[in-house]
Amino acid sequence: MKTEVVSQEKNIIVIKAEFEAEQVNKAIDSTIKDLSKKANIKGFRKGHVPRKTIELYFGMKGICAEALEKMVPEAIDKMIEEYELSLIAEPKLEPGELIENEPFTLQVTFEVTPEVTLPDLETIEAEKTLYKATEEMRDENIARLLESRSELVPTYEERELTKDDYVSVKYDSFTVDPDGTETPVENGQKTELHLGQENMRPEVIEALIGKKPGDKATVEFSVENDQENTELAGKKMKYEIEVLGILKKVTPELTDETVVEMTQSKHKTVDEFKEEVMSQLKAAAEQHSLDSLKDSAVERLCDLSEVELPETLVTRQKEAMKADQARKIKKDSGMDMDEFFEKSGMDKESYENELDMAARVVVKRALVLEAVADANSIEWTPAELEAEISRMAISSRVDPKKLHDYIFSDRERLFELAEKIRNRKAVDFLITKVKVKEKEENDTADTAAAE
Predict the structure, then answer these.
(1) Distances (CA, A) of 272 to 145, 280, 354
(2) CATH number of 151-250: 3.50.30.20, 3.10.50.30, 3.40.50.790, 3.30.450.20?
């Protein structure tokens, strides 16, 4: 097989492959032998069917079509290897007619990764924001931990309820038909409410404020159509509520005993616990600082790199982002995209423009990092892939072997994970080459305020 580049424009390459008549005949002969082994023709044993019988049974056009199905993939693989092509889309085929004793021509259009012009990495200036862990942050974290262990306890107070109170109530609920017919939904249910909670229904707050333990209140309202409980959506609800008592929230103090309980005896004193929290905050701050350097370095790298983005990749990225957003909206609100646009008032054209810009940023970043990896012989290893799958399994709390089999069952999924590792290594390599300018965390805020 002889090949030649017919044309090359931007990232589109057209290559022609030519097969001599001898190669065509060899492919047809091989196909006939395979058909002879597979064909179940009465009067002949498999593998011993004469050529003429195979030709009569399948027809020469069918045999040539079968031969073509074998020749084309092999030819494409050889072209990709010979010209070292990195494809971003399925190749487009223009095969000639395959005829016995005649040469055959195949023309293939490849869409490949575009050429990226990178700057000298050592000339890039990137910023690293220095985040710090403070005692104030430590104390806030500890306060949140203690808050999460708070308990509501009865007060036995007989005063009127205020908007800041916690209250224990018992209620019965009903759906109310347009004709006034009430259908019970729940009976004798007990719960605890915080009247100052943001997502509390205003009708409930209004009905309870001013009531005392032992008092009763009736609340009616219509359930919105976008509620999670679709069975009640759009219906009128009625609640008969009895105030059982006023509660108070008791938050434990930070003592050695509390520390032992919270850490399951890992730490035994308040000082030990504070030191551990501060250590974790410092580690998080250092990682945050490192991430800021990586983000800055990649952003500057992309700004200084030149590449013409293939619309194929941009469109593919947009569709992936759109599908991801649609799934999230469906999960959070139960609405599809069209319904979401209608109810949110979001302009479709503006959304598409923003999506297009975001997709182009993602595509350019991927192409540039791939170019850095190519230029510096950065590759992923099987051990790194296995480690990544193990981390994912631990994070998702799934069986590592099942996740491994799932990822390896799909070539595209496996390729995406491998590229993720390679890109991450390219970023790690990048930050060892750039010029780093450090700045304090509050420098950004000060600059913004000045501006």
Answers:
(1) 15, 13, 49
(2) 3.10.50.30
